[in-house]
Write a structure and sequence with these properties.
Keywords: Hydrolase. The chain is an alpha/beta fold. It has helices at residues 60-65, 92-106, 118-129, 149-164, 167-177, 180-186, 191-199, 202-214, 219-223, 244-254, 268-271, 273-287; strands at 13-20, 23-30, 41-46, 68-73, 111-116, 134-140, 231-236, 257-261. Helix 2 (92-106) packs across helix 3 (118-129) and helix 4 (149-164) packs antiparallel against helix 8. The radius of gyration is 18 Å and the shape is globular.
Protein backbone atom coordinates (compact mmCIF):
# COMPACT_ATOMS: atom_id res chain seq x y z
CA UNK A 1 0.00 0.00 0.00
CA UNK A 2 1.33 3.42 -0.94
CA UNK A 3 1.59 5.96 1.85
CA UNK A 4 1.55 9.56 0.62
CA UNK A 5 2.68 12.03 3.30
CA UNK A 6 -0.58 14.00 3.09
CA UNK A 7 -3.88 14.16 1.25
CA UNK A 8 -3.97 17.97 1.32
CA UNK A 9 -3.17 19.51 -2.09
CA UNK A 10 -0.08 21.75 -1.92
CA UNK A 11 -0.22 25.43 -2.86
CA UNK A 12 -0.64 25.89 -6.59
CA UNK A 13 -2.38 22.52 -7.00
CA UNK A 14 -6.05 22.38 -7.92
CA UNK A 15 -8.24 19.42 -6.99
CA UNK A 16 -11.04 19.05 -9.50
CA UNK A 17 -13.03 16.69 -11.72
CA UNK A 18 -11.83 16.05 -15.25
CA UNK A 19 -14.79 15.42 -17.55
CA UNK A 20 -14.03 13.10 -20.45
CA UNK A 21 -15.90 11.19 -23.13
CA UNK A 22 -15.62 8.11 -20.91
CA UNK A 23 -16.67 9.61 -17.59
CA UNK A 24 -15.42 11.94 -14.89
CA UNK A 25 -12.12 11.44 -13.07
CA UNK A 26 -10.75 13.09 -9.94
CA UNK A 27 -7.41 14.83 -10.52
CA UNK A 28 -4.76 16.91 -8.80
CA UNK A 29 -3.65 19.53 -11.29
CA UNK A 30 -0.41 21.37 -10.51
CA UNK A 31 0.71 24.26 -12.70
CA UNK A 32 3.98 26.22 -12.71
CA UNK A 33 4.11 29.83 -11.52
CA UNK A 34 2.18 31.88 -14.04
CA UNK A 35 -0.38 29.15 -14.76
CA UNK A 36 -0.75 26.23 -17.21
CA UNK A 37 -0.20 28.47 -20.24
CA UNK A 38 3.37 29.09 -19.04
CA UNK A 39 4.17 25.39 -18.69
CA UNK A 40 6.96 23.71 -20.65
CA UNK A 41 4.54 20.85 -21.22
CA UNK A 42 1.95 18.66 -19.50
CA UNK A 43 2.45 15.33 -17.76
CA UNK A 44 -0.18 12.76 -16.81
CA UNK A 45 0.65 10.69 -13.71
CA UNK A 46 -1.09 7.31 -13.27
CA UNK A 47 -1.07 5.60 -9.84
CA UNK A 48 -0.75 1.93 -9.02
CA UNK A 49 -2.73 -0.85 -7.34
CA UNK A 50 -4.52 0.29 -4.13
CA UNK A 51 -3.06 3.76 -4.74
CA UNK A 52 -4.43 7.12 -5.80
CA UNK A 53 -3.45 10.47 -7.30
CA UNK A 54 -2.11 11.51 -3.88
CA UNK A 55 0.79 9.09 -4.38
CA UNK A 56 2.35 11.86 -6.49
CA UNK A 57 1.46 14.74 -4.16
CA UNK A 58 5.01 15.34 -2.92
CA UNK A 59 6.31 15.42 -6.51
CA UNK A 60 3.87 18.08 -7.70
CA UNK A 61 5.56 21.20 -6.23
CA UNK A 62 9.06 20.40 -7.58
CA UNK A 63 7.61 19.49 -10.99
CA UNK A 64 5.69 22.77 -11.09
CA UNK A 65 8.81 24.69 -10.03
CA UNK A 66 10.66 23.01 -12.89
CA UNK A 67 8.04 24.44 -15.27
CA UNK A 68 5.73 21.47 -15.81
CA UNK A 69 1.99 21.10 -15.51
CA UNK A 70 1.54 17.77 -13.73
CA UNK A 71 -1.88 16.11 -13.55
CA UNK A 72 -2.27 13.10 -11.25
CA UNK A 73 -5.45 11.07 -11.75
CA UNK A 74 -7.59 8.53 -9.92
CA UNK A 75 -8.58 5.83 -12.39
CA UNK A 76 -12.12 4.50 -12.48
CA UNK A 77 -12.98 2.86 -9.19
CA UNK A 78 -9.94 4.39 -7.46
CA UNK A 79 -10.52 6.60 -4.40
CA UNK A 80 -12.42 9.71 -5.62
CA UNK A 81 -13.27 8.47 -9.13
CA UNK A 82 -16.51 6.52 -9.26
CA UNK A 83 -16.67 3.15 -10.97
CA UNK A 84 -19.37 0.59 -11.85
CA UNK A 85 -19.80 -2.83 -10.28
CA UNK A 86 -19.29 -4.75 -13.53
CA UNK A 87 -15.94 -6.56 -13.75
CA UNK A 88 -15.71 -5.88 -17.49
CA UNK A 89 -15.38 -2.14 -16.77
CA UNK A 90 -11.93 -2.70 -15.25
CA UNK A 91 -10.35 -4.78 -18.00
CA UNK A 92 -6.93 -3.43 -18.91
CA UNK A 93 -8.09 -2.27 -22.33
CA UNK A 94 -10.94 -0.28 -20.77
CA UNK A 95 -8.57 1.45 -18.33
CA UNK A 96 -6.20 2.22 -21.22
CA UNK A 97 -9.04 3.82 -23.18
CA UNK A 98 -9.91 5.89 -20.11
CA UNK A 99 -6.35 7.17 -20.11
CA UNK A 100 -6.55 8.16 -23.78
CA UNK A 101 -9.80 10.00 -23.03
CA UNK A 102 -8.14 11.82 -20.13
CA UNK A 103 -5.36 13.08 -22.40
CA UNK A 104 -7.91 14.32 -24.92
CA UNK A 105 -9.89 16.09 -22.20
CA UNK A 106 -6.78 17.86 -20.89
CA UNK A 107 -6.57 19.66 -24.23
CA UNK A 108 -2.84 20.14 -23.81
CA UNK A 109 -1.60 18.42 -26.95
CA UNK A 110 0.86 15.55 -26.63
CA UNK A 111 1.73 14.76 -23.03
CA UNK A 112 4.47 13.14 -21.01
CA UNK A 113 3.04 9.93 -19.53
CA UNK A 114 4.17 8.35 -16.26
CA UNK A 115 2.71 5.19 -14.74
CA UNK A 116 3.61 3.73 -11.35
CA UNK A 117 3.42 -0.06 -10.87
CA UNK A 118 -0.05 -1.15 -12.12
CA UNK A 119 -0.31 2.36 -13.57
CA UNK A 120 2.68 1.50 -15.73
CA UNK A 121 0.85 -1.51 -17.16
CA UNK A 122 -2.19 0.66 -17.91
CA UNK A 123 0.06 3.32 -19.48
CA UNK A 124 1.85 0.72 -21.60
CA UNK A 125 -1.50 -0.62 -22.81
CA UNK A 126 -2.59 2.92 -23.72
CA UNK A 127 0.46 3.74 -25.81
CA UNK A 128 0.18 0.37 -27.57
CA UNK A 129 -3.40 1.26 -28.49
CA UNK A 130 -2.36 4.70 -29.73
CA UNK A 131 1.10 6.25 -29.20
CA UNK A 132 0.19 9.51 -30.97
CA UNK A 133 -0.98 11.50 -27.90
CA UNK A 134 2.27 10.89 -26.00
CA UNK A 135 5.75 12.42 -26.11
CA UNK A 136 7.36 9.95 -23.72
CA UNK A 137 6.54 7.05 -21.42
CA UNK A 138 8.04 6.66 -17.95
CA UNK A 139 7.56 3.25 -16.34
CA UNK A 140 8.08 3.75 -12.60
CA UNK A 141 8.61 0.50 -10.67
CA UNK A 142 6.58 -1.30 -13.33
CA UNK A 143 7.91 -4.47 -14.88
CA UNK A 144 7.72 -6.42 -18.12
CA UNK A 145 5.04 -8.94 -17.13
CA UNK A 146 3.35 -10.43 -14.05
CA UNK A 147 4.57 -9.51 -10.57
CA UNK A 148 6.98 -11.69 -8.57
CA UNK A 149 5.69 -15.03 -7.26
CA UNK A 150 5.33 -14.00 -3.62
CA UNK A 151 3.48 -10.87 -4.69
CA UNK A 152 1.10 -12.99 -6.76
CA UNK A 153 0.29 -14.92 -3.59
CA UNK A 154 -0.40 -11.70 -1.68
CA UNK A 155 -2.63 -10.31 -4.41
CA UNK A 156 -4.58 -13.57 -4.59
CA UNK A 157 -5.03 -13.53 -0.81
CA UNK A 158 -6.40 -9.99 -0.98
CA UNK A 159 -8.69 -10.84 -3.89
CA UNK A 160 -10.07 -13.86 -2.02
CA UNK A 161 -10.70 -11.71 1.05
CA UNK A 162 -12.58 -9.13 -1.02
CA UNK A 163 -15.06 -11.79 -2.12
CA UNK A 164 -16.15 -12.65 1.44
CA UNK A 165 -15.44 -9.51 3.50
CA UNK A 166 -16.37 -5.86 3.19
CA UNK A 167 -13.75 -3.16 2.72
CA UNK A 168 -13.66 -2.21 6.41
CA UNK A 169 -13.11 -5.82 7.46
CA UNK A 170 -10.35 -6.26 4.90
CA UNK A 171 -8.64 -3.09 6.14
CA UNK A 172 -8.58 -4.45 9.68
CA UNK A 173 -7.29 -7.80 8.44
CA UNK A 174 -4.45 -6.10 6.56
CA UNK A 175 -3.48 -4.15 9.67
CA UNK A 176 -3.62 -7.27 11.82
CA UNK A 177 -1.21 -9.19 9.56
CA UNK A 178 1.59 -6.66 10.11
CA UNK A 179 3.75 -6.79 13.25
CA UNK A 180 2.36 -4.15 15.68
CA UNK A 181 5.48 -1.98 15.60
CA UNK A 182 5.67 -2.16 11.79
CA UNK A 183 1.99 -1.36 11.35
CA UNK A 184 2.26 1.61 13.67
CA UNK A 185 5.35 2.96 11.90
CA UNK A 186 3.86 2.50 8.44
CA UNK A 187 0.26 3.56 8.97
CA UNK A 188 -0.19 4.63 12.57
CA UNK A 189 -3.56 6.22 13.19
CA UNK A 190 -3.81 7.86 9.79
CA UNK A 191 -7.52 8.04 9.08
CA UNK A 192 -6.81 9.43 5.59
CA UNK A 193 -5.30 6.11 4.48
CA UNK A 194 -8.26 4.18 5.84
CA UNK A 195 -10.69 6.61 4.20
CA UNK A 196 -8.99 6.15 0.83
CA UNK A 197 -9.07 2.38 1.18
CA UNK A 198 -12.80 2.38 1.96
CA UNK A 199 -13.56 4.48 -1.13
CA UNK A 200 -11.85 2.08 -3.53
CA UNK A 201 -14.15 -0.20 -5.51
CA UNK A 202 -13.65 -3.82 -4.39
CA UNK A 203 -14.55 -4.93 -7.91
CA UNK A 204 -11.79 -2.74 -9.32
CA UNK A 205 -9.31 -4.19 -6.83
CA UNK A 206 -10.25 -7.76 -7.69
CA UNK A 207 -9.99 -7.25 -11.45
CA UNK A 208 -6.81 -5.19 -11.48
CA UNK A 209 -5.24 -7.55 -8.96
CA UNK A 210 -5.99 -10.40 -11.34
CA UNK A 211 -4.25 -8.44 -14.09
CA UNK A 212 -1.10 -8.13 -11.99
CA UNK A 213 -0.81 -11.92 -11.75
CA UNK A 214 -1.49 -12.71 -15.43
CA UNK A 215 0.04 -9.76 -17.30
CA UNK A 216 2.02 -11.04 -20.32
CA UNK A 217 5.40 -9.76 -21.43
CA UNK A 218 4.70 -6.95 -23.93
CA UNK A 219 8.18 -5.43 -23.98
CA UNK A 220 8.86 -6.36 -27.59
CA UNK A 221 5.62 -4.67 -28.68
CA UNK A 222 6.64 -1.51 -26.87
CA UNK A 223 10.19 -1.66 -28.22
CA UNK A 224 8.77 -1.86 -31.75
CA UNK A 225 7.59 1.75 -31.40
CA UNK A 226 11.27 2.73 -31.51
CA UNK A 227 12.05 6.43 -31.73
CA UNK A 228 8.35 7.26 -31.91
CA UNK A 229 8.16 7.00 -28.12
CA UNK A 230 11.20 7.52 -25.86
CA UNK A 231 10.92 5.36 -22.74
CA UNK A 232 12.29 5.91 -19.25
CA UNK A 233 12.53 3.01 -16.77
CA UNK A 234 12.75 4.41 -13.24
CA UNK A 235 12.83 2.53 -9.94
CA UNK A 236 14.26 2.48 -6.47
CA UNK A 237 17.31 0.41 -5.62
CA UNK A 238 15.17 -2.35 -4.09
CA UNK A 239 11.80 -3.66 -5.21
CA UNK A 240 9.87 -6.72 -4.04
CA UNK A 241 7.15 -6.41 -6.70
CA UNK A 242 9.42 -6.58 -9.75
CA UNK A 243 13.10 -7.25 -8.93
CA UNK A 244 15.38 -4.36 -9.88
CA UNK A 245 17.51 -6.71 -12.01
CA UNK A 246 14.39 -7.47 -14.05
CA UNK A 247 13.76 -3.75 -14.54
CA UNK A 248 17.39 -3.33 -15.65
CA UNK A 249 16.93 -6.08 -18.23
CA UNK A 250 13.66 -4.53 -19.44
CA UNK A 251 15.37 -1.17 -19.94
CA UNK A 252 18.02 -2.81 -22.11
CA UNK A 253 15.38 -4.56 -24.20
CA UNK A 254 13.61 -1.24 -24.70
CA UNK A 255 16.73 0.81 -25.33
CA UNK A 256 15.31 2.99 -22.56
CA UNK A 257 16.80 5.64 -20.34
CA UNK A 258 17.38 4.06 -16.91
CA UNK A 259 17.27 5.72 -13.48
CA UNK A 260 17.67 4.18 -10.03
CA UNK A 261 16.68 6.46 -7.15
CA UNK A 262 18.98 5.98 -4.15
CA UNK A 263 17.18 5.30 -0.89
CA UNK A 264 13.92 4.36 -2.61
CA UNK A 265 12.06 1.05 -2.90
CA UNK A 266 8.84 0.29 -4.81
CA UNK A 267 7.49 3.84 -4.51
CA UNK A 268 10.20 6.40 -5.39
CA UNK A 269 7.41 8.96 -5.72
CA UNK A 270 6.78 8.79 -1.96
CA UNK A 271 10.18 7.53 -0.76
CA UNK A 272 12.29 10.18 -2.52
CA UNK A 273 9.89 12.61 -4.25
CA UNK A 274 12.36 15.47 -4.84
CA UNK A 275 14.95 13.25 -6.47
CA UNK A 276 12.31 11.42 -8.48
CA UNK A 277 10.77 14.66 -9.71
CA UNK A 278 14.18 15.92 -10.77
CA UNK A 279 14.90 12.73 -12.73
CA UNK A 280 11.61 12.70 -14.63
CA UNK A 281 11.71 16.46 -15.30
CA UNK A 282 15.17 16.11 -16.82
CA UNK A 283 13.97 13.26 -19.05
CA UNK A 284 10.88 15.19 -20.13
CA UNK A 285 12.93 18.27 -20.96
CA UNK A 286 15.25 16.21 -23.15
CA UNK A 287 12.29 14.90 -25.14
CA UNK A 288 9.74 17.70 -25.08
CA UNK A 289 10.22 18.11 -28.83
CA UNK A 290 10.27 14.36 -29.60
CA UNK A 291 8.27 13.35 -32.62
CA UNK A 292 7.00 16.85 -33.21
Amino acid sequence: MSRPPTFTPPPGTRSHSLRTARGTFAVLDAAPPGGPERARGTALLVPGYTGSKEDFIAMLPPLAEAGWRAVAVDGRGQYESEGPDEESAYALGELARDLLAQVEALGAGRVQLLGHSLGGLVSRAAVLLDPAPFRTLTLMSSGPAQVAADQRDKVKLLSDALTVMDMAQVWEAIRAMDPPEEAEEAVGNREDLRRRWLRNSPVQLRVTGRQLVVEPDRVDELAALGDRLPVHVLSGVRDEVWPVSLLDEMAVRLGAHRTRIAGAEHSPNTDRPEETAAAVAEFWAAHQGSGA
